[in-house]
Amino acid sequence: MQQLRAKGWGWGEIAMASVMAKKAEKNVSDIVALRDKGLGWGEIAKELGIKMKDVAKGLGKWVHEAKVKAAKIKANMIKAKVNQLKKRPENLLELQEAMQEFQGEAEKLLAEIQADEDNEEAVKEIKEVVKELNKELNNAFKKHGKKKD
Fold this sequence. Notes:
Elements: H1 2-6, H2 11-24, H3 28-36, H4 41-48, H5 52-85, H6 92-113, H7 120-143
Helix pairs in contact: 2-3, 2-5, 5-6, 5-7, 6-7
């Protein structure tokens, strides 16, 4: 991905190439080579023997998976921040703000992905992370004799 980004490809193009490669059981580099020859996405799909409607479905799933990965990364970043901040009681309000920010993002993400049965495991995992972080936050406030709002 980094090479494609350095080459000037946008995230949408990278997603398209990734999905097409998966659908056609090819490497992304094969798709890149076709694009480098000047072929459009429709022409590439035709050459690979795949349908654009299948690619579109795959793109939707790719976007969901990317959002889930981003939420997990964000959760891990906040979890690290929780561990760092809970050691210093003067930072509890900052910790609470970080938690609230993450919860807002997690709620939006869950609203988007819950409708898709394929995301059931991801939904469960994100809910567990939110629950765990809330527990961490509550423990930090209890440890330092303060109440969480």
